[in-house]
Amino acid sequence: MEEPHRILVVDDEPDLEQLVLQRMRREIRRGRYSFVFARNGVEALERLNENDGSDTIDMVLTDINMPEMDGLTLLKQIPSVDPNVRSVVVSAYGDMKNIRTAMNRGAFDFVTKPIDFEDLRITIERTLEHLAMLREALEARDKLVALRSDLDLASKMQQSILPTKFPESPHYEIFGGMEPARDVGGDFFDVIDLSDGRIGITVADVSGKGVPAALFMMSSRTLLNSVAVARANPGDVLGEVNRLLRPGDVLSEVNRLLQENNDAAMFVTVFFAIFDSTSGELVYANGGHNPPLVIHADGSSSLLSQEPGVALGIAPEFSYDMYNATIAPGEALVLYTDGVTEAENEKTEQFGLDRLRDILGGSSPHSAREINTKVFEDVKEFAGKAPQFDDITCLTLFRRGVSE
Amino acid sequence: MDTYRILVVDDEPDLEGLVLQRMRREIRSGRYSFVFARNGVEALERLNGDNDIDIVITDINMPEMDGLTLLEQIPAFDPKLRCVIVSAYGDMKNIRTAMNRGAFDFLNKPIDFEDLRFTIEKSLEHLKSMREAFEARDKMLAEGRP
């Protein structure tokens, strides 16, 4: 059964205690109310000071004229002791002055003497109803604050796993960035040093948004990273991760978090490549991700040729093909997510691949950082005041020329 | 700053001029704006067409629909709307009925404008904390579900 609502009755006349207990006996027996008594304001405050734990006072019913501390003074003190307690004042019949003073000092309501117990019952019920509504809303607010801080933490963790320092080499320059759309997003990129002059590069986009996407993203990234280090063949990497992602603990954990959406099948599009910085050879595989762009030394551009493949997490047995290309000295490879090409302006037009090729083409590339920064700046300028719906990620690899 | 909209319901046309005159400073500073209705029916029509009302201050005795009936109807429009009843001085029976029907507070006639100001501010403060809490709950429901 529900806990009784505890009401503190404050009056210096001992008769009231008996009267209340007698007239409210049915409510007391049913366990709806329980009464606690105090003889004046000081005693009442002492009682309210211990107001936590299982016997919390919900409301105070107080007389006005009492020794030591009167009801009107008590009213002023209550909010600082417990702001969630509501007070009802008992006044002499027609004592407008005191009633108005009490109401203006924050009394929730009043009753007059001699107490009409029917009126008192209605007044108590209305006060409790109000308290219940307020408590529900306050609890929701507390949960919201907690949720926000979780999102904030998730966002920080997510940002912290993205590379901020990039390998330095006389042969190439690499630079990347991610601009999350909401507190936490689903895009990521990675640069893995595989020694002997080779680096693994990844750009990926997890389906969905928020904490589940962030968790899925972290799991995907960790799996990709560890499998990539263990294996050298990009086709195998995607095949392995795909098998691990689909039935693995990762998905079940994310699903558990998606309390109401147990059938929310998450997936991640991934472009993964291994670049040999000495030969310029690029071996790559694509799991349903946007085709990367190669900016040639003469300012023209082309897309890396490939079959797009299937996003990871959808088809457990899918075997990913492996492709080869060469990044010539003076050429740049631009990896991006659809947050770039599908960024919308205020007229809901999309940035588009053509615009990306336009802004990057026309002149010889000479810096990965410069290309990457230009992509972010141009997308931002294009979007104007339109809201950003998706994470924006771009990772650029530039192979230095022989002369550099 | 937000201007709070207060709907004053009274069949005596004098009250309108009095409120506008006595509250001119609050009106000029943009803290309050007043809307008037002559009875409960007009008040409900107002509430129907204007969901920006924050507080209703209503007389009790009015033709067509009195203040106590109006009080019962208001929660259907907005359960968070605060309602203050204006009664004849010391009319305990009506005041108690109004409070038991969910009035947030009451005022006596003739209106003490200092008390009115205090009561409005108290109602607004209360309204604000309720709205904040409920907005938080709504956001919680929206954000909690991915």
Give me the CATH architecture of the largest domain in chain A, please: 4-Layer Sandwich
Q: Estimate nothing, just give the exact number of structural domains of chain B.
A: 1
Uncertain stretches of 5 or more adjacent residues of chain A: 242-263
Number of helices of chain B: 6
Question: Architecture of chain B, according to CATH?
Answer: 3-Layer(aba) Sandwich
Oligomeric status: heterodimer
Radius of gyration of chain B: 16 Å
Shape of chain A: rod-shaped
Looking across the biggest beta sheet of chain B, what order are the strands in? 2-1-3-4-5
Helical fraction of chain B? 40-55%
Going by CATH, what is the homologous superfamily of chain B? Response regulator
Structural class label of chain A:
alpha/beta
Please give the largest β-sheet of chain A.
5 strands, parallel
Cα-atom radius of gyration of chain A: 34 Å
State the strand order across the main sheet of chain A.
Answer: 2-1-3-4-5
At the third CATH level, what is the topology name of the largest domain in chain A? Phosphatase 2c, domain 1
Proportion of residues in extended strands of chain A: 15-25%
Task: Please explain how this structure is put together.
The complex is a heterodimer of chains A (404) and B (146). Chain A has 404 residues and is an alpha/beta fold. Chain A has two domains: 136 residues, Response regulator (Rossmann fold, 3-Layer(aba) Sandwich), CATH 3.40.50.2300; 237 residues, Phosphatase 2c, domain 1 (4-Layer Sandwich), CATH 3.60.40.10. Chain A contains twelve helices and 15 strands. In chain A, helix 3 runs parallel beside helix 4 and helix 6 runs parallel beside helix 7. About 5% of the residues of chain A have low confidence. The longest helix of chain B has 32 residues. Chain B has one domain: Rossmann fold. In chain B, helix 3 packs parallel to helix 4. With 146 residues, chain B is α/β, with parallel strands linked by helices. Chain B is built from six helices and five strands; from the N terminus they run E-H-H-E-H-E-H-E-H-E-H. Helices cover 52% and strands 21% of the residues of chain B. The mean pLDDT of chain B is 88. Chain B has a five-stranded parallel sheet, sandwiched between helices. Classes of the chains: A alpha/beta (404), B alpha/beta (146). Chains A and B meet through helix 5, strand 5, helix 6 and helix 7 of A and helix 5, strand 5 and helix 6 of B.
